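Handout, section B. The chain below has 146 residues.
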Amino acid sequence: MKKNFETKFTGWSFIVAALLLWGGWALSPHHIGEYIKASDFTAIGEDVWYWIWMYRVHIFGWVTMAIALFALVSVIGRKPYRVVILPGAGMVIIGTFTLAIAAAYYYNFGAWGVGKTAGMSPDEVQGFMHDILFTNQYVTCFYRFG
């Protein structure tokens, strides 16, 4: 393989994406599971701004991964193999952006929920959780699809 701007950009894009994606996840003080639970807001609230920044880093890792995949396809997607490469890469890129959207939801609702549930009684928090249940279920589907 030739070492030129295209291949260097592609390689470094994958490295940066991996560092952002895994670094943001590994350094996050709290990980939301498959669904947002009431206990997540308490854990996030312990250091909400640090949690927000680590989630931003993680989300940008997903976006950078899609950029890296686009770059890879532009380098290797030549005849006669592009008929196989393009559909496969398209599905992976769509899945990557789907995961970025789902992560952005958890980031937004996690940070918003900390402020929204502050000072609520346990019964009020359960009512709040019931109100966001539909959206919570919907975004869980995004994660599974991604």
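Note. The chain is about 80% helix and 0% strand. Compare this with the example in section A.
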